[in-house]
């Protein structure tokens, strides 16, 4: 049975755009890898890098209002909120857990969860700060992992449990994969782009 859409289903929604015209970059210019990793480290680091690049592609060419648009009410989620959230996640796992730094949260006081999303407003200064924070945390994480020769190296979490670098990288791949799926839907709601 074919699904029918009512005018209310399409009201204020951009028309989906498919095929090559909808790609964020031409395939030959895509900065992400096509696999071909040679060992466990390059595979884990490579897939995480690719997901980070995917998030950047999903946010490309949008203004502050579009990045901050909460596209699926009543959710607080937006592309800008995801960017801020992932900066916080990077900071928490790599600075606080793996490096053992006493790094305060970026967007939420201790014990609160939604500051990254609550503060994601359509202000160019907020967008600029979010990109700066995310890129800074990603650079720190990449340098720290590169300087850690053994993926079995363990770090203690706040609950007393330990996590290896290997487990942490897998967790981050999972975190980005989940949120890049959200980003797919958020971006389509903003301007109809569904590619890559």
Describe the structure.
The protein has 196 residues and is mostly helical. It has one domain: dinb family like domain (Four Helix Bundle (Hemerythrin (Met), subunit A)), CATH 1.20.120. Helix content is 53%, strand content 3%. The chain is built from 7 helices and 2 strands. The protein has helices at residues 7-10, 40-59, 64-68, 79-98, 115-118, 124-146, 165-191; strands at residues 154-156, 162-164. Strands 1-2 form a two-stranded antiparallel ribbon. A hairpin with a 5-residue loop joins strand 1 and strand 2. The longest helix is centred in the C-terminal third of the chain and has 27 residues, at 165-191. 26% of the residues are buried. The model has no long low-confidence stretch (mean pLDDT 86).
Overall mean pLDDT score?
A: 86
- The CATH class is Mainly Alpha
Query: Based on DSSP secondary structure assignment, what is the total number of beta strands?
Result: 2
Q: Which CATH architecture would you pick? A: Up-down Bundle
Low-confidence stretches: none
Label the structural class.
Answer: mainly alpha
């Amino acid at each position: 049975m074919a699904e029918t859409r009512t005018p209310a289903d399409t009201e204020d929604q951009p028309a989906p755009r498919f095929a090559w015209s909808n790609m964020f970059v031409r395939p030959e210019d895509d900065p992400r890898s096509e696999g071909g990793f040679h060992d466990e480290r390059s595979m884990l680091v490579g897939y995480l890098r690719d997901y980070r690049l995917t998030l950047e592609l999903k946010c490309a060419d949008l203004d502050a209002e579009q990045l901050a648009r909460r596209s699926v009410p009543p959710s607080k989620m937006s592309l800008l909120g995801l960017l801020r959230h992932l900066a916080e996640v990077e900071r928490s796992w790599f600075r606080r857990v793996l490096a053992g730094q006493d790094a305060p949260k970026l967007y939420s006081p201790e014990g609160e969860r939604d500051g990254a999303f609550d503060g994601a407003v359509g202000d160019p200064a907020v967008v600029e700060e979010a990109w700066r924070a995310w890129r800074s945390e990603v650079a720190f994480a990449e340098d720290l992992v590169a300087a850690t020769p053994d993926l079995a190296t363990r770090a203690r979490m706040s609950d007393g449990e330990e996590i290896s670098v290997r487990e942490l990288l897998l967790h981050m791949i999972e975190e980005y994969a989940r949120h890049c799926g959200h980003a797919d839907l958020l971006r389509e709601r903003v301007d109809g782009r569904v590619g890559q």
